[in-house]
Amino acid sequence: MSALLMARERAWPALPRVPFFKTHVRPTAWVIPDTQCKTFEWACLPSWGPHDIEAECRLEASVRMQLATHQVALDYQVHQPVTGSLQATVWAYEAFKLHERMAHMKELGFDLQVFTAQSQALGLASFFRHSFKSQQALQQRITEQLVSFMRQGEVPC
User: Fold this and answer.
1) Pick from 3, 37, 5, 1: which is nearest to 18 by CA?
2) Backbone angles phi and psi of 75, in degrees to 5
3) Are 71 and 48 in contact (CB under 8 A)?
4) CA gap 10, 79 in Å, rounded
5) How far is CA 65 from CA 37, 39, 73, 130, 155, in A?
6) For the ranges 6-10, 73-77, 104-108, 111-115, which has the lowest average pLDDT?
7) Is the model more confident about 53 or about 107?
8) Rounded to the nearest 5 degrees, what angle is found at the Cα of 30, between the Cα atoms of 24 and 32?
9) What is the rounded distance in angstroms from the CA atom of residue 25 to the CA atom of residue 18?
């Protein structure tokens, strides 16, 4: 664990240096595998405002996921394809799973501020204010350390 924390310190030196298990809370993000998200395109009417688009996306996601609207956590991005009318790309996830993850992260001293799909990981660079390349390098170092620890029997498989 200490090697992983040192790798994080090297990759993100701007973050405050505090002992790992202090009550200080660190902002963090959770990247959900694309296969766990319900992703779809949704046509937007020209008369819709931002609240209408969000409401319609939430309704459609709840129908597709067969959940109540308050049980859906979602994000969407509105874009205008070449054909002209507005469309929203929607990423939906089960809210109870997100709330469970938030509680677990809080127990570990993290504040889950962002969740995103793996396909949207480039957007994390702006959240962390670091380049995507440095995030990839950190992820590679963490993976290498984890594999090393697993081989040594320090982490249960």
Assistant:
1) 5
2) -135, 155
3) no
4) 37
5) 10, 10, 11, 34, 35
6) 6-10
7) 53
8) 165
9) 10
**Does pTM top 0.70 for this prediction?**
no
* Residue 65 tokens, joined: 């996921």
Asked if 141 and 7 touch (Cβ cutoff 8 Å), the reply is: yes
Backbone angles phi, psi at 149, to 5 degrees: -65, -40
Share of the chain above pLDDT 70, in %: 63
Place of tokens 């996306």: 57
In the chain the first and final C-alpha atoms are separated, in Å, by: 15
* Residue 105 and residue 111 in contact, taking contact as beta carbons nearer than 8 Å: yes
